[in-house]
Structures are given as C-alpha cells and as structure tokens.
Amino acid sequence: MSTQQSENSYIANEILPLLASGFGYPFNNSEQVKINDVPIFRASGARSGATMDIVYYWNGEPVLLIEAKREHKSHESALKQALDYLRNFPVSHKEFAPSGMPPKFLATTVGREMKFYKWAIDYSKPIPDFLTEQVDILPFAKLLEYYGLSEQYEARALDTRGFKADFFDELVAIFKTDAKEQKITAEVIKKVSLQILNFLAYSDKFAGQSPYTGLTIQGQKAVRDLFDRFNLVASLGADIAHEFRRAILRSFQGGGFNQYLTEQCIVAFMVDLSGGFRPETRVLDFECGSGGFLAAAVERGVSLENIRGVDIEELPYIVAKTYLALYFKKAGEWIDALPVKKENGLLDQGNDWNVIIGNPAGGNKYEHGDLVKIGRHLDRDLDRNGALDDNFSEYNLSIQQAVASANVGGKICLILPEGFFSNSHDEFLRKYVVKHCKVLAVVSLPRGVFKKGTSTRRQGGGAQTASMKMSIFCAQKVRDLDKKNPLGNDDFSALDYPVFMASVNEPESKSGAVCEWLEPQLAIIFDQWREWNATHKLKTIPRVEIMDAGPEKKVRSLPLFDRKTINKVKKSKPLAHKSTTKISESLEDIFQ
Known about the structure:
single chain, 19% strand, disordered C terminus
C-alpha cells in the first residue's frame, strides 16, 4: 500500500469521522472536503507535486486547512508544515481561492488529538510572516459564522484585538496579495488606510472609489466579504484608533519605509508637558504624521474644530485622517470636515495658535520646494550672511514655523535634534528662539527610542534605529516676531532664568516595546516637572529597595506616582531606571 493511500485511509477513517460526528463538519462531499487535492505551487508558478492533507471549503472559499499526523508525530511538526502550506496556499488560482485569501484557521491532528489555530501577521520581519495562536476547536457552524457565511448572519462589531487580527491583517493581506508583494510596502499601507477611510466616507458606495476600483476581481470580492463580515461603523472609537495606529507602526517597522510615527508614551508626555488644554485651545501640528498629537490634544479637552494637522506626504495625510475618523467616530460627510490638510506645512498657517506641537522634519537639507511662498512669512536668510537659502536645514524652517505660528503666550513643544542645542552652525537658530521665546524645559531622550517608522523624517536613512539623539523642547512665545532684527544681540543677561532640564537614561536592554521601559521614566520626569512648576524645586527620588523574596522580588513602590501601589514585578521584567534630572540656573551653558 502506498504512503498516499495509507494517509488518505487514515484521514478518511479517523479524522473526517471525528470532525463530522463531534463538530458537525461535512463528510462525504468532495466539493466541501478536499483530501490531498489542493496543490502547492513553486515560485516559478509550476505545481510542486506536494498537496495539502485536508482543506474544507464553503461556497467555493477555503475555510480550514488541516495537517494530519500519525500518533508518533508531534503537533509542533504538524503546525510547522501547516504554516508552510499556508505561506504557499494557491491564492492566485481562482479554483482554489476565489477571493485570493487563504483560510484564516489551521488545525493539526496527531492520532485523534486535534488543535485549532488562528493566524495573524508578524510585522517584525522584513518579509512579514504568519503568527499563530491556539484557539478552541470550532464546530463547523461557528467556523462559518466567523466568515459571515452562516444563515441570518449579522455583521458584528470589532473589539481592539479583533480589529487587528480579524480585520486589519486581512485587509493588508488582500492588498499585498493583489499587488503580488512579499513585503508590506508603503503603497500597500496607503491603500489599506484609504480603503478604510473611503468605506467610512461612502459606505455602500465605496465600490466606486479608489483603491477598491484598482483591485482585481478576486481582491474586490475579498474586500466586500470583509466589510460585510464586520460592522466597522459600530466599532469606531479611541481603542480601535489606537490599535490602527499601533498596527501602522508595526508595519512601518517591518519594511523599508521612510515614514515616521512617534511612540504613544512620548506623544502623551509632550501633550501633558504643554498643559492647560481647554475646548477653545487652538492646536497646530504642521507635520502631523499619523495625527497622534492631535488626537491626544482632543483627548485632553480641545474641541475638534480647534485643531489642525498638516502633512505634505500623501501616506501620513491619509493615515492621520483615517486615525481621526476612527478615533472620533466620524463617517459620511464628516470625513471631509476632519481638520487634516495635505499641503506643505511650512506655508503660512496663521499666527494665532495656542499650542504648536509635533515631531517635525529634522533633516539637514530642505528638499520640498515652495521656498518663494515660504519666504513670505519665514526668513530665508535668518543667519544674516546675505545669501538666501544657504543654511536651510529642515529643522531650521520647522523652528521658524513653530515660533511664527504661535500667538504671544502660546506654547511650543517639539522634538528636535540634540545638535540644535550645541552645534556652532545652529547658533543663529538658538538666538532666534531665545529672542522670541522663554525656554521652559528640555528633556533629552536616549538613542533608540526612534526606530524605523518612529523617528524624525529622513533620520537613520532606512536603518532599523535612528542614531541621532533627539530632545523634547518646550518653550513659550513671549514677544511678536522682530523681522528687522530676528536674532537680537549677544547679550545673554536677559536669559538669567532657570530652565527645567532632564535626561532619560539608556536602559540596559531595549528589547520589547519602547514604551515598556520609556514610559516609567517619562512619568518620573513629568512628576518632577509638576513639582518644579509649583515650587521651583525637585523632589528627591527615593531609592528602590529590592528584597530577596525567593523566585520573585518585591519592590517598594515609588510614592511620587499617583497610582496603585506596585507590589511585585516578575523576574523577567527589568526595573524602571531612575531618571537623572537637573536644573540649569541660566541658558548660557546651552547657548554658548
């Protein structure tokens, strides 16, 4: 008896009856149960000769892939093989995958023992791969319900976990497969974001809009099926928006993107540092990226109509608008009213903004044009050497735009290259800032907090981690622009006032999410900032005592946190590093 016959006999006599009798799966139906009938194709497009043990179908679509092993095998080896089949599922062949999507569920059997798995996308790899999570064994009716294929099915709302694994990942897979891309490219992410945005804007008419119209028939069917399966409008809210932003962030980190998002803990810290938000507070982010600063400002009480985000690049503009639509539960005609503009953020945005906040471009060259228009309100010869545009770094223009756009008394909170505070060739920029602003705080961040997709634009040149050190700069505008004498003079006696300065320590390990180790340090610094504003003194940060407690270590909680007492931390979790916080009695040490 051949191996193939033996395997088919094992499947027919052991596995299929188990699924049919115990879980209601089809049995004697060759259209719904394919045994060693779905082929694997080589990269060249030719059949490899290998086939998949079992694939269940419903209405022509694959819904479950099973790898069956004898009793002496293991589920681990079966899952490994099932994942190989999943990666090479013939999604480009309509007879095997009409919608161009592989089944969302896998199963492994060892003897009569069975396990079910659900896949998601692992964005951490240059070529994204599948991650699997074991789930309860699904009866066939529940499986069909997941796909929206059961009778009287009603589209269901998404929670945050479902948005990522069930909705966003599948939408990414649809556009990636349709474009025949192995990697998740910037174009794929742009189309995914625009598809979500256009569905919210046009609802049942979205099929007449791009990017849907550019998909193949297979891709269009897959998108329709996905939006039919879930009630996206009923799912809108801050939690879904944050998950969308995290998913965008992860996908940026997995590919060769030259786009950047700021970590959520840094966004929250900077918004809190700016402080004093009310409904009427006017907030501008003139290079808004994904819109994180804008949403955080509204979360602190600012009215939606009093914020404005601007970005010159199409991808961050679409991502920001989608993020705000999800966050503020906007659909239909409200989409056009969202306060995000696609234009050069260095053009005149007015001068009556109460808060200017963001992570603007920090490159050494400005390459976006529009210099004549920009020069109508910004200074093209700020260093006063008689030559226009000869010292035009991107952050030169960003600093000018922030100061020019704020009203007198307005706050400015930006992420700037640390060289701004010490480089000799940026001395004129420092003079410009202190001529018009009172510096409130400077918080130095360690290298590594801005990874690919999370740093100031064009820093790192595609490297996984940007090498440039960055600082958070917070100031208050104290006088109108002096266009005749923008730099003032060299007399620093007027700058004899204290400035809050802090430095975040480098962690021993930067593995895991950035905010896991960065957020506790920022919390300490912010607590010190509040104390400093109240008393112009700093709290003494208590030592953290570690007592031997066998397999676990107990830690005395830090009283400066207004949070629940921390009783235990697992051994595998590193302790939060103590921040070094210092005060400068004057700015002369910075601006020399």
